[in-house]
């Protein structure tokens, strides 16, 4: 009888311990990512999760689902807005259809360096766009990943002139500004979800695409693309968005931890790009990719894009005055 009583006590203690430990189990949020491991998105996401855990004493964490496991990048905006997805790291151009005012960051040739990207995203313009996405799409930007300039790749031929561009079919995101840019160049843009792009390149449905070197490497585009053209029309910014409903459910302390983790990951992203882009570019050359610059610089590309595309999208981005304010912040002439 004594043995049975001791056994019962032990079982009760075990049950109590199990209940106690489950009470303090970390809350795990799902974080979608469009790119593969090794990308800027992935590096950003890892740092965000690390910092989130550190700033909440392990009470909150995140699980990364890279390579569009949770759907296309645009799908994740919808799901986060509905509250069925917690977070997503995605290209800013895939947020633009749902919050057109952030399209100012995809206007061709507005951002011309990492430093300018940091200035805009981490200053008053970035803060304004955070509020815009909350209002327009029900998602909150809580951090910014930087991936570098989108370069043009293709499988057919070197592209050095706008005439060369007309010979290839280029996959572009479902983003009106980017579609209009290629049309202004006389190109053949084919809108397509990011999750479908590798297969389309592999099967020859499209000849080329544009993305930064870090993404080209992470997505193994060197296996289906040969030629690279160093256009610098868009500096790729990839925000971390969060369901606004989920954000508002959190205590002020957890909200602050999320923002601070996002800020730390933002800083890390800039460091990651600076440390890795040149090395990755060289590795792609070693793998057989042929890199060239546009003939005679990009003057013709710039002129056609800024004169044709900018005016068409003044209204959608929030007005010409908004673009002029950004140009002033960057120390450039107003239009």
Considering the chains and any ligands shown, give keywords for the structure:
TRAP_DctP_sf; transport; 11 strands; 5-stranded mixed sheet; 335 residues; TRAP transporter substrate-binding protein; D-Maltodextrin-Binding Protein, domain 2; alpha/beta; 17% strand; 6-stranded mixed sheet
Model description:
This protein has 335 residues and is of the alpha/beta class. 49% of the residues lie in helices and 17% in strands. It contains 14 helices and 11 strands. The protein has a 6-stranded mixed beta sheet. A 5-stranded mixed beta sheet has the order 2-1-3-10-4, with helices on both faces. α7 links the parallel β6 (169-172) and β7. α2 (40-55) runs antiparallel to α11 (252-286) and α7 crosses α12 (299-312). The protein is globular, with a radius of gyration of 23 Å. Keywords: Signal, Transport.
Average predicted confidence as pLDDT: 93
- How many distinct beta strands? 11
Query: Which series of helices and strands comes N to C?
Result: HEHEHEHHEEHEHEHEHEEHHEHHH
Strand order of the largest sheet: 7-6-8-5-9-11
Sum this structure up briefly.
With 335 residues, the protein is of the alpha/beta class. It has helices at 2-23, 40-55, 73-82, 114-121, 124-137, 162-165, 176-184, 197-203, 213-218, 244-249, 252-286, 299-312, 314-317, 320-329, and strands at 27-33, 60-65, 87-89, 139-149, 151-154, 169-172, 188-191, 208-211, 227-229, 235-243, 290-292.
């Amino acid at each position: 009888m004594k043995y049975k009583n001791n056994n019962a006590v032990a079982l009760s203690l075990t049950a109590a311990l199990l209940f106690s430990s489950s009470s303090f189990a970390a809350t795990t949020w799902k974080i979608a990512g469009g790119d593969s491991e090794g990308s800027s998105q992935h590096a950003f996401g890892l740092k965000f999760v690390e910092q989130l855990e550190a700033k909440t004493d392990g009470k909150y964490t995140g699980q990364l689902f890279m390579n569009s496991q949770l759907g296309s990048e645009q799908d994740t905006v919808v799901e986060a807005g509905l509250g069925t997805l917690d977070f997503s790291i995605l290209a800013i151009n895939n947020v633009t259809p749902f919050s057109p005012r952030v399209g100012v960051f995809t206007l061709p040739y507005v951002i011309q360096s990492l430093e300018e990207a940091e200035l805009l995203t981490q200053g008053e313009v970035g803060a304004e766009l955070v509020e815009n996405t909350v209002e327009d799409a029900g998602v909150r930007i809580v951090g910014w990943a930087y991936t570098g300039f989108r370069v043009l790749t293709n499988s057919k031929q070197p592209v050095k002139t706008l005439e060369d561009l007309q010979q290839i079919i280029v996959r572009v995101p479902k983003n009106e500004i980017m579609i209009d840019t290629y049309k202004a160049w006389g190109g053949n843009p084919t809108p397509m979800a990011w999750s479908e792009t590798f297969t389309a390149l592999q099967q020859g449905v499209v000849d080329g695409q544009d993305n930064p070197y870090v993404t080209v490497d992470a997505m193994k585009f060197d296996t289906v693309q040969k030629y690279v053209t160093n256009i610098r029309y868009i500096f790729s910014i990839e925000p971390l968005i969060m369901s606004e409903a989920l954000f508002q459910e959190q205590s002020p302390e957890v909200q602050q931890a999320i923002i601070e983790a996002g800020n730390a990951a933002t800083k890390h992203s800039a460091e990651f790009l600076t440390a890795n882009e040149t090395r990755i570019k060289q590795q792609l050359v070693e793998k057989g990719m042929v890199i060239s610059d546009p003939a005679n610089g990009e003057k013709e590309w710039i002129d056609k894009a800024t004169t044709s595309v900018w005016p068409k999208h003044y209204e959608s981005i929030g007005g010409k005055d908004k673009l002029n304010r950004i140009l002033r912040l960057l120390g450039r002439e107003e239009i």
